[in-house]
Amino acid sequence: MPILRPTYLEIDLKAIRHNYAVLKTKLKSQSEILSVVKANAYGHGDVEICKTLEKEGCSYFGVATIEEGLKLRQQGIKSKILILSGCGTKYLNVLSENKLTPVISSLYLARHFHENLKKKMSVHIKIDTGMGRLGIHAEKAIQAFEEISTFKNIEVEGVMSHFGQSELPKSERTLSQKKKFQEIVKVASKRFPHIKYYHMANSAALLYDLKMNLDLVRVGIALYGCSPDLSSPNLMKKMNLKPVLQLKTAIWSLKKMPRDSYISYGESFKTKRETMIATIPLGYADGFKRAYSNKGCVLVRGQKAPLVGAICMDLSMIDVTDIPGLCVGDEVVCLGSQGPSEITASDLAQWAGTISYEIVTSFTSRLPIRYKS
Fold first, then answer.
1. In terms of domains, do 68 and 144 share one?
2. For the stretch 266-284, what's the b/e string if a residue is b when 16 or more beta carbons lie within 10 angstroms of its beta carbon?
3. 362 in any annotated domain
4. Pick from 159, 187, 274, 279: most CB atoms within 10 A?
5. Which residues, 6+ apart, have CB-to-CB distance to 306 below 8 Å?
6. 53 in any annotated domain
7. Which residues participate in catalysis according to the annotation?
8. For 318-353, what is each residue's pLDDT tens digit?
9. Same structural domain for residues 304 and 335?
């Protein structure tokens, strides 16, 4: 379908290749990157991202669900795929037939696999070192490995854990988790030499050099050029990582409004002078959050134009009074760069009181994606 509304996501595949290459330089020689492409590759389009990274040599991808893994297989992705959020007790045949590797997060689930699998399957075992979410308690890990090692149809390919706040590398919690997992690795690697991968590091752990680049490093948000840490907005530039995604639209209408005019729903904004209001065809139904109302800005002709009034379902208004000579159809960048100016996912996250992960994964299917090679 042709793009009839001038609102779309632009994905720079050259930037994803650049970021992948940069991140590889930060690994130990024996480590591999597991590229996390769950949630439609963090909103960037999982199929195209995987095809691009496969050509760059990426041999392992991480998704959240079986459905995400099946989609990639159906689109021709050949690399290993790890189902990070687990899979429950059903669909073992689907995992096996499509060569999807599940994460097992409990001894109960391991026993179920053992009792119901008809042929050997590779799995990763998740250990809870302090996240408090999924995983076998660290204190019971070695005992669990002992039992699982007797299950003839389960081949433990990897053992993993997950940091709760790796963006704070010196926090008590991070150091405790790191120590627990290192102790498990030390014992397990001797008693279970067949285990190929031990992995815990994510984007922040890699960028802040937590010394946890074991056999795999699970890189997600950094791969897309977004900071995992709102307190360090310049982290991406410091690490030479480039934003991959831009959100673009165009001026839909221009209207001069007199002083003391209300703009949009409610009475959250009133003009203090004669004001030129531009309306853009982008709203919260596209994932452009209502929380940006009267806080954020967009870029027009390289200048920042404030968002005014409540963001609507399909439309938003901006004040362009101080940007002369505008025309209907002029490009508007809502996330990305234009001329000397830039709006990052971290900027949007701060305006919405959230994190960059939520920003890029919130864009809806109403936004078509254009890829730049």
1. yes
2. eeebebeeebbbbbbbbbb
3. no
4. 159
5. 294, 296, 297, 318, 319
6. yes
7. 38, 265
8. 999 999 999 999 999 999 999 999 999 999 999 999
9. yes
